[in-house]
UniProtKB/TrEMBL annotation:
It comes from the Eukaryota. Pfam families: adh_short_C2. This is Ketoreductase domain-containing protein. It comes from Sphaeroforma arctica JP610. Residues 9-203 form the Ketoreductase domain. Keywords: Oxidoreductase. Belongs to the short-chain dehydrogenases/reductases (SDR) family. GO terms for biological process: fatty acid biosynthetic process. SUPFAM superfamilies: NAD(P)-binding Rossmann-fold domains.
Amino acid sequence: MALSGLAQRVVVVAGATGGIGRAISELYVREGCKVALLGRTEKTLVELQSHLLELANKEHAENDKQLSAVYVATCDVTDSPSVKKAVTDIIANIGAPDILVNAAGVAEDGLLLRSSDKSIQNNINTNLIGPMVTSRAVLPPMLRKGGCIINIGSVVGTHGNVGQCAYSAAKAGLVGFTKSLSKEVGSRGIRVNLINPGYIETPMTAHIPQEKIDKIIQNTTLGRLGTTDDIVQAVRFVSTCTFITGQVLHVDGGLVL
């Protein structure tokens, strides 16, 4: 079954409490979806759940949309049993997933020569293995009805960056993963795409020194950093365009040109 409208679709957002994940979760709530929030910290997830339910009530009152459901599933995306249990609970409580957004990510920066094994493994496990684990977990119900998987990568997965060897390698790996999985499941009506943000104003990028920010803006064709709304617009497009799969969409203001 092809996905077009979003109302009452069951959406799983992995990494929901991050800057981009939070904005994506808000998008689906506004569209009247049933949203499952995945993350490692229950307290933060519950706080986001409360915010999203308030947003849902407001949208319902103003636009007469069907009220969204917001469900919390605490898990580590790199831990397969944890993710499987979360998906089982999601199915039991709000239904089988129609859309999965892999927005969980970490960026442990440092020159490779000085990087610890733990830092390298954490970058790879969270940014690359995690999306594989969560995608595998939602595929069984999606195989029966179709669906949409959206991976959130990074512009550095395309052009690399000093001090981000492991992070860049993990995000580059999402390209091959996205294209390969799209070929494996396309015949069952499941689309898989990758969105590569440029530098977006989020807590993850707030630590970047201003002189580096100025240089990034100078090298960005549109002359500014991106916002989470820029990513949200791309996510909505990929969620609803039913003839796009296996693609890498750069939302970077022209940084990689």
